[in-house]
Specification:
Number of strands: 9
CATH architecture of the largest domain: Alpha-Beta Complex
Structural class: alpha/beta
Helix content: 40-55%
Largest sheet: 6 strands, mixed
Strand order of the largest sheet: 1-2-3-4-6-9
CATH class of the largest domain: Alpha Beta
């Protein structure tokens, strides 16, 4: 990152906004400043009508190495800062889940600890086949307790516990196998794969995407009968919207729908 450049870059094109972690010399670590910058961008995107899909990327050979351990060491004697740091990180992860736009992680290099948490918090993730992932806090005496919240909601308990207890790196292929990422692809076609996925999603009704993403995460935490009752009411409400009626009519009439979002 050159002097004067933002910690998080932002570019919007054709409804797809790319947020780029932009501190490669610090391995794009989640310092307080980086978390605050990312939080501000997510806040801005929540109400941005021009953005239909978000891609989360990073500059340099490391996607995100987790928290900035140098910063943590400097603040050893300030427990209030440590709690504020982890609370801010948790806020950002929840902002990603609550964002009314789909978020796709684009991963090159290593995503460890809170960086792995960042990947797990995104709705979708595509990794270069050379990427690697870990929750290695156990190796330095600081268990990855907050990263495990997102991790355990993406992969099975035993796979999550294996990563958390061993702290070992896993390959992109293994990450795809256990469900941490959607796809592991050759780095040469990473952008093509990510942005083809983003364009496919961006072509949908923004209103429908907002409803669906919120409902997905809410029903996950419910008992089965409650989840069906909730999603039935969501669908009944959804069908009253212009885009649902337009989509059904367009399908039956064999034409392209005219979304109003």
């Amino acid at each position: 990152m050159s002097e004067g450049e933002p910690l998080v870059g932002r570019v919007c094109e054709n409804g797809i906004t790319t947020l780029t972690l932009n501190q490669p010399q610090r391995r794009n670590s989640l310092s307080m400043a980086m978390l605050e910058a990312l939080s501000a961008e997510l806040d801005a995107l929540a109400g941005d009508a021009a953005t239909r899909v978000v891609v989360l990327a990073a500059q340099g050979p490391t996607f995100c190495a987790g928290h900035d351990l140098r910063e943590i060491r400097e603040q050893f004697d300030h427990p209030d800062f440590q709690l504020a740091l982890f609370n801010q990180c948790s806020k950002v992860m929840q902002q990603i889940v609550a964002l009314p736009k789909p978020v796709i992680a684009r991963i090159i290099g290593v995503a460890t600890a809170a960086g792995c948490q960042l990947v797990a918090s995104c709705d979708l993730a595509v990794a270069a086949d050379t990427a690697r992932f870990a929750t290695p806090g156990v190796n330095i005496g600081l268990f990855c307790s907050t990263p495990m919240v997102a991790l355990s909601r993406n992969v099975s308990r035993k796979h999550a516990m294996e990563m958390l207890l061993t702290g070992e790196m896993i390959s992109a292929a293994r990450a795809e196998e256990i469900g941490l990422v959607n796809r592991a692809v050759d780095e040469q076609v990473l952008d093509e794969t990510v942005y083809r996925m983003a364009r496919t999603i961006a072509d949908k009704s923004g209103h429908t995407l907002r409803i669906g993403k919120e409902a997905f995460y809410r029903q996950l935490e419910m008992p089965l009968s409650d989840a069906y009752a909730y999603t039935s009411s969501v669908m009944a409400e959804n069908i009253q919207a212009h885009d649902a009626r337009e989509g059904i009519c367009a399908f039956l009439d064999k034409r392209k729908p005219d979304w109003k979002d």
